[in-house]
Automatic annotation (TrEMBL):
It comes from the Bacteria. InterPro entries: DUF411 (IPR007332). This is CopG family transcriptional regulator. It holds the Pfam family DUF411.
Amino acid sequence: MEAGVGGADLKRLLAERPSLVGIAVPGMSMGSPGMEGPRSDPYQVLGIQKAGGTHVFASHP
């Protein structure tokens, strides 16, 4: 499994079907799925738009 996007965010993406080509967590933040460790940093899941831009899809404390 790659680090970053969790199951809840994937389920939300599939349920809502926004006009995105994908979602991603840049930077491999500590605490994101696959990057569990001694600490958990806040991180954001970005939505990747068809035109190439991004926006915050989800925030995790």
